[in-house]
């Protein structure tokens, strides 16, 4: 009963503090991302060999279309999920429903009698993925204090690398030893564990009704001052004392007629903090139409650049998925086990880069971290075109994975910052746009990668060159637009200080005036 209590019961949920805490929510969202990527990647080393065993031709292209089906489900479901989550102020229920859909899709894929059913199962997996990437990240930002958003997102994004780390080698090993069903059974076990964690979630607005603010654990409502039944009747959207203007919140202190002199109460400050938490604009969600959300996002260069990077990230990562196993097989005669080990060696460094990037984003801002990570990713894609040394190839694969994974935390933090500065645009809206851009990238990426690898004379080299060009574009955009104070603006201020420009302008103006006066006097004297 305690698992469902946040929805209907008037009794205080058990484990309120830890079930609503920032670290528990981070753990659940991180594990959800891990499960999502594990289910996505566990079939990557399996599908090409399974399709070959079933006598299919042009395996790379067929594999690409299956991966595209996953992204198609993700893209189609993004807008309804984002709008529904913001309109009805729900995070927990969509997360639970998404995981049930994931388990069902795994069973469908495992028992699929033909290629068409496999594609439908992958579409359903994509819909489930949207839940954790939109609603999960929004839930994490709802709960986390603004100053720690980058760090917590970086930790949660570690799940992306862990999912790839476990999924790809596990898929190859289980397929080789136990057959086609084994990888899916492993994915279902992980999904059941994830479902148990999601059932334990208590959202921040529910915790506030019981006098606990997860983002400010010390701000506890005075016992008896504000009970759950009275709090639940408060209509947050009608409170006149909370006014949101862009990124700032002006809250006038609520005077309690029953307490004439608050200074005499030792817990008066706690009561005031708790009431301010209840009126937190993050929790007061006033949904706006889809068209208004699109217009607001399209008017923000920061949002457009961050979403462009999300698209490129999805495109770059997914273009290599149908082609990398075949490239390793053709050049170094890898089987599915060795392909899994190659992915393992590549993904391990990424476990460090995501939380490390998130840690520094909160201290120096997303502009520096995004630019540095993208710039250091670029040369390794050139090295990946070389065919003479397997150790060098694996090292280059690991290096590019390390730096490109470091981009995710600053980009998602940048989007959260943009959302806070746009009245009416919630976290689910902004992460819905992120998921849409990423999903479109992952939808077209496998198809482009598979087609180029199958039809180009040097398919792998062509893919690496395309990737390098896309990353170079992102480096330029990050330098010019990322962050509240982009690096380009910093450079311009350094070399062209505003005071110097004004002084130079004033000197030119004075010089012009003096010249004009001299010219007038000269003409008067000559006359």
UniProtKB/TrEMBL annotation:
GO terms for molecular function: transmembrane transporter activity. The chain crosses the membrane at residues 21-42, 62-81, 93-109, 115-141, 153-176, 182-201, 340-361, 368-386, 392-413, 425-448, 460-484. Its main location: membrane. It is found in: Membrane. It holds the Pfam family MFS_1. GO terms for cellular component: membrane. Keywords: Membrane, Transmembrane, Transmembrane helix, Transport. Residues 22-486 form the Major facilitator superfamily (MFS) profile domain. CDD domains: MFS_MdtG_SLC18_like (cd17325). SUPFAM superfamilies: MFS general substrate transporter. It comes from the Eukaryota. This is Major facilitator superfamily domain-containing protein.
